[in-house]
């Protein structure tokens, strides 16, 4: 089954709630997501500086790269919709939903390393 990436960018609603947001994400959300069929790995990142001049600014302070096994982006989205509808994921009250971006990417090449 082909691997796909789901890139999620988001931020907490404010700096005051950032520690609780990060605790929830690391200790609850990632394990819940990894229990979802098709999701096989996660890597989480924090923005270190603003966008390079002349490039678009992203929506989130934090980014998670989820590796998924799915035949198509539509299949990946359907698996996520089913999991969300099941109520088995907790969603945190401190997420700034207006900043959230979720995008799916399919590979164009094999993984290339040095």
Q: Would you mind describing this structure in some detail?
A:
- By secondary structure, the protein is an alpha+beta fold.
- It has one domain: Alpha-Beta Plaits (2-Layer Sandwich), CATH 3.30.70.
- It is 27% helix and 25% strand.
- The protein is built from 2 helices and 4 strands; from the N terminus they run βαββαβ.
- A 4-stranded antiparallel sheet has the order 2-3-1-4.
- The radius of gyration is 15 Å and the shape is globular.
Lay out the secondary structure.
Elements: E1 3-10, H1 18-34, E2 39-46, E3 62-69, H2 73-86, E4 101-105
Antiparallel strand pairs: 1-3, 1-4, 2-3
Overview features:
114 residues, alpha+beta, Alpha-Beta Plaits, four-stranded antiparallel β-sheet, 2 helices, 4 strands, 27% helix
